[in-house]
Write a structure and sequence with these properties.
alpha/beta, globular
Length: 324
């Protein structure tokens, strides 16, 4: 009997060490959206450890290559993060045709719903190209920018296409003319178009309303373990009042990490002593001459500080050594 009890307690100890879970403990998930749709698929999280891992996907569009994102979904299910974030360009977009928009979002959602964990939406220039698309997003997904807190880690989900409507229409019109040049419908060079020289094309922009929203959020959560700032275009490269500078000042007294997409080419740098990463692609168009233009998914294990791992999709294989 004594031997059996010893074995029982030894097993109980090993199990408790492996799971590292407090009895009856529930994940801590907070947000401020009280009505209407929400820009995530679920708030049902599986809690296995006191630390947690989340995944990030990058650009699907700007010339989506068929099958890549569906493969990423299957790979993420095998890796089993707690939830998955995005950095935008989820549909081809760029249209005012709401039937076409519904078709494209339905296509994306039909693939995304196969994830075994919650997915958080974030818009890029392909998702929020014009005022009609902005309204479509609001009606279907809710806020274009928002925050949430999970296990005392703060996530700022930003809209880098946050322009006044008049400016958005100017950008949209210039983009349409530039596409005609690229398609050969109009003579000229893309580099000579008005759109090419707009800094919004590369760097995006945000309103004072969005800035004030996130400043308030930071005041509300001064003592979180870490803050992640996600956006599509690199607002931090824009140096005027439409860029990230004022928010970086508000972030200066806390540990944070900035992650964006848009360039379809991976890069990393330190800025103000913090990590700033531009992700590659998860199905979007690639430049064959660019060795840093590759498909990958990102895993972030959040313990005392984040451990970030970028996994090239070509190397994530199933038990048979095949891409799932």
């Amino acid at each position: 009997m004594k031997t059996s009890l010893s074995i029982y307690f030894a097993i109980l100890f090993l199990v408790s060490c492996k799971t590292n879970v407090e009895p009856n403990r529930q994940p801590k998930f907070e947000h401020n959206i009280t009505e209407g749709p929400t820009p995530w698929t679920s708030d049902n999280f599986e809690l296995e450890e006191t630390d947690f891992t989340f995944g990030i996907i990058s650009d699907l569009n700007g010339g989506e290559r068929e099958g890549v994102y569906s493969t990423a979904v299957a790979q993420l299910n095998r890796l089993d993060p707690t939830f998955v974030l995005s950095v935008g360009d989820l549909i081809d977009g760029g249209t005012e045709d709401t039937l076409q928009l519904a078709k494209e979002w339905d296509s994306f959602d039909q693939r995304t719903v196969k994830l075994n964990m919650p997915f958080f939406y974030l818009g890029g220039n392909h998702d929020l190209t014009n005022p009609i698309m902005r309204k479509f997003w609001k009606d279907r997904l809710g806020p274009r920018y928002y925050h949430f807190v999970y296990e005392n880690v703060l996530f700022l989900m930003m809209d880098s296409e946050d322009y006044e409507e008049e400016r958005m229409l100017q950008i949209y019109k210039a983009r349409a003319e530039a596409i005609k040049v690229l398609d050969g419908e109009v003579e000229g060079k893309f580099e000579d178009t008005e759109y090419f020289h707009m800094q919004e094309r590369r760097l995006g922009g945000m309103s004072s309303d969005q800035l004030n929203y996130f400043k308030t959020v930071l005041q509300q959560y001064p003592n979180v373990r870490w803050t992640f700032v996600l956006m599509h275009k690199p607002l931090w490269m824009r140096e005027d009042d439409k860029g990230l500078g004022a928010l970086e000042t508000a972030l200066a007294d806390r540990p944070y990490t900035v992650i964006n997409g848009h360039f379809h080419s991976f890069s990393y740098r330190e800025r103000y002593g913090r990590n700033y990463t531009i992700l590659g692609t998860t199905g979007g168009s690639q430049n064959p001459a660019d060795s840093l233009s590759f498909d990958h998914i990102t895993l972030v294990r959040m313990d005392k500080e984040p451990v970030i791992t970028h996994l090239k999709m070509a190397g994530i294989l199933d038990e048979m050594g095949k891409t799932p």
